[in-house]
Design brief:
The structure is a single chain. With about 300 residues, the protein is α+β, with helices and mostly antiparallel strands. It folds into 2 domains: about 130 residues, Aminopeptidase (3-Layer(aba) Sandwich), CATH 3.40.630.30; about 140 residues, Aminopeptidase (3-Layer(aba) Sandwich). The protein is about 25% helix and about 30% strand. It is built from 8 helices and 16 strands. Strands 1, 2, 3, 4, 7, 8, 15 and 16 form an 8-stranded mixed β-sheet that branches. It has a 4-stranded antiparallel β-sheet with strand order 9-10-11-14. A hairpin with a 5-residue loop joins strand 12 and strand 13. Helix 4 packs across helix 7. The longest helix has 16 residues.
Amino acid sequence: MFHRTFTFPDYPACFLVAEDEDSHRVLGFLHYLYPGAFPLAVQDAGYLTVVMVDPECRGRKVGAQLLHAALASLRPLDATHVLLNNDNPYQLTWRIPDTPGYDHNNMPGVDQECTGHDFFLHEGFTVTASEVSLYMPLAAFRLSPEIQKTREALAKEGILTGFLDPSRPWDYDGMCDRVHSEYWRDVLRTELAAWHTDTPNADPRFWADGKRPSAPRPMLTAVKNGEIIGFTGPVDLQSSGRGWFTGICTDPRYQRKGIGTVLFSLLMDTFRSRGAAFASIFTGTDNRAQRIYIASGMQPVRIFDQLTLNL
């Protein structure tokens, strides 16, 4: 697990290790990426993945020495700042507290309740954005009668919600243009291509557990007149029992009609019916979509800060 976490994907990265010079015991380590190390990287930024220090060695400036050594190696590479955020392609799994070991497949920053949070602020990092983690066990989840009423009201406007028929031609570029998201365009393009070729999605960005799916996966959408105007999915399951999906998107022209709430509720119900034990998601603390998730039964668990350090 450790080897896979820090070798997949295969981007230029660096390990720094602190060890006791007598016993050669590892006291701590740091993992980071050089500027321009991956396709979406900010060209003048280094990316810090993690600093870990043996609990018995904390307070001895092990973490600070590792961090300062990393910063010293980044400055000659024309790095002007260091980022600790969810753009980093090395995703670390996070265990959700007060659950039977349930996890989330990535952390978007530093947990505000983590001891490392104060460490980074002390070292001069500043908070640039915050995301809240939400969680829900799925065993008792059921669709509310209000969801069916909303679906019926949408249908009267010509907006159909449910599983997408991949055999039909669909226009999704308009929605992706209006939300300014190449990410959603890539999700829809690659998953529809999987259906059209009867082969699993080949893009590792969209694999649950980092493993290529066994077949094309269902998607939940809102459609009108041949356009996809809302989307969530693709529907998948992780080995931990987590329902996996890439997120949720609604065309700005059709917001405030309940489309996002309907799609998210259908997604949770689909997860439950397919055997998922729980669902979790991160979203910005100021993202209005948070209301959709909470209305569906999710509860806030932790807040993570994205950090930056100017060099």
